[in-house]
Specification:
Helices cover 39% and strands 18% of the residues. It is of the alpha/beta class and 299 residues long. It has a single domain, classed as Rossmann fold (3-Layer(aba) Sandwich). Helix 1 packs across helix 8 (267-298) and helix 5 (157-170) packs across helix 6 (176-194). The longest helix is centred in the C-terminal third of the chain and has 32 residues, at 267-298. Bound molecules: adenosine-5'-triphosphate (ATP) and ribulose-5-phosphate (5RP). InterPro entries: P-loop_NTPase (IPR027417), PRK (IPR006082), PRK/URK (IPR006083). This is Phosphoribulokinase.
Length: 299
C-alpha cells in the first residue's frame, strides 16, 4: 500500500462483470479529475490462447489440470511485482490480451494473443486493476497487500455462469460445450484462488437475480439489472454512513449490520455514492504524502 501511489483493484471471476463495472469507476475518476492507468488482469496470463490449448492437452495427458483461475496459467509474482513497483515509483508497464477480432484488428493481431508490453512513466494519480486476481494470496505471492481499495464483483454463481456462457459464446467465439467444460475444469482453482479473495475485499457487490436461474447451462439471456438485487457487504471500511445511502437509494434496506441491499437498477448509483468518498480519501492522502515529501526535500 502506498499513500503516494494508490492502487484500486476490482476482482472477480471470469464473467463476473469486472470489465462492465470499470465504466462506473471511470465515471468517478472523470468526476474527480483523476488520471488513472488501467491494468487488465488477463494481461498476466502466461499463455496465448493457442499455447493454453496445448497446456490443457498436456495436463490432460498426465491426468492433471490447468485453468485461467490458477497459478499455472497466470504469473502471480509478476502481478505482485507490478503492484509493488507502482506503489514505490508510480511507474509500470501494461499490455492487453486480445479476446475478440474487434479487439485484435486495430493491433493487426489475432484473437487470443497479447500486445507487446509498454512502459508508462510517472504522472498518473492511481493504478486501477480489473481482473481475476487483484486480491490473490498464495504461499509465495501476496498481491492483496499492495491494494489500497479492494472491491469484489461477485454475482451468485449461477448468474456468473450465465454471464460467462452468453458472453463467451456471443462475443468470443466459443461453443457452449467448450465453455461448460472450462467451468468444470476450473472448479478446483476457483475454490483455491478466486473465492478466498472475497474475504479480503473492503466491499463486495453481489448481484442476486430474482428470476429462475436454476439451470444456467440452458439460459438464453442474462437477467437484467431490473431482474436482480445487489447485496453490498462492507468490511473494515470506517464511518460508513448507511443512513445516507438508505435515504438516497430508493428501495434499499439493511440485511445485516454491515450489509445493504439495493435494487439492481440502482447498482450504478450505489457504486458512485459508496466509492466516490473512498476514492476522494485516497486522493487526499496522496496529496498529503506528496506535500510531505516535497517539504522534506526542501529541507
Ligand atoms: N450488472 C450486469 N447486468 C447485466 N449484464 C451484466 C452485468 N455485469 C456484467 N454483465 C454481462 O456479463 C458478461 C460478462 O461481463 P464482463 O465482460 O464485464 O465480465 P468480466 O468479469 O470482465 O469477465 P472476464 O474476466 O472473463 O473478461 C457481459 O456480457 C456483460 O455485459
Ligand atoms: O476471461 C477470461 C479470464 O478472465 C478468459 O477465460 C481468458 O482470458 C481466456 O480468454 P479467451 O477465451 O478469449 O481466450
Amino acid at each position: 500500500m502506498s499513500a503516494r501511489n494508490p492502487i484500486i483493484a476490482v476482482t472477480g471471476s471470469s464473467g463476473a462483470g469486472t470489465s462492465t463495472t470499470t465504466a462506473s469507476f471511470e465515471h468517478i475518476f472523470r468526476t474527480l479529475g483523476i488520471s488513472s492507468v488501467n491494468i487488465e488482469g488477463d494481461s498476466f496470463h502466461r499463455f496465448s490462447r493457442q499455447e493454453m490449448d496445448m497446456e490443457k492437452r498436456k495436463a490432460k495427458e498426465v491426468g492433471s489440470n490447468i485453468s485461467y483461475f490458477g497459478e499455472l496459467a497466470n504469473d502471480f509474482p509478476e502481478l505482485e511485482k507490478q503492484f509493488r513497483n507502482y506503489s514505490e515509483t508510480g511507474k509500470g508497464k501494461i499490455r492487453h490480451y486480445l479476446h475478440t477480432f474487434d479487439e485484435a484488428v486495430p493491433y493487426n493481431q489475432m484473437p487470443g494473443t497479447f500486445t507487446p508490453w509498454e512502459e508508462f512513466g510517472e504522472g498518473t494519480d492511481l493504478l486501477f486493476y480489473e481482473g481475476l486476481h487483484g486480491g490473490v494470496v498464495t504461499d509465495e505471492t501476496n498481491v492483496a497487500q499492495h491494494v489500497d481499495l479492494l472491491i469484489g464483483m461477485v454475482p451468485i454463481v449461477n448468474l456468473e455462469w450465465i454471464q460467462k456462457i452468453i458472453r463467451d459464446t456471443n462475443d468470443r467465439g466459443h461453443s457452449r460445450e467448450a465453455v461448460s467444460a472450462n467451468i468444470v475444469r476450473s472448479m478446483e482453482d476457483y475454490i483455491s484462488f478466486i473465492t478466498p479473495q472475497f474475504s479480503r475485499t473492503h466491499i463486495n457487490f453481489q448481484r442476486v437475480p430474482t428470476v429462475d436461474t436454476s439451470n444456467p447451462f440452458s439460459a438464453k439471456a442474462i437477467p437484467s439489472l431490473d431482474e436482480s438485487f445487489v447485496v453490498i457487504r462492507f468490511r473494515e471500511v470506517k464511518n460508513v454512513d448507511f443512513q445516507y445511502y438508505l435515504r438516497m437509494i430508493d428501495g434499499s434496506f439493511m440485511s445485516r449490520i454491515n450489509t445493504m441491499v439495493v435494487p439492481g437498477g440502482k447498482m450504478g448509483l450505489a457504486m458512485e455514492l459508496i466509492l466516490t468518498p473512498l476514492i476522494r480519501d485516497l486522493m487526499e492522502r496522496k496529496a498529503q504524502a506528496t506535500q510531505q515529501i516535497d517539504w522534506m526535500s526542501d529541507l
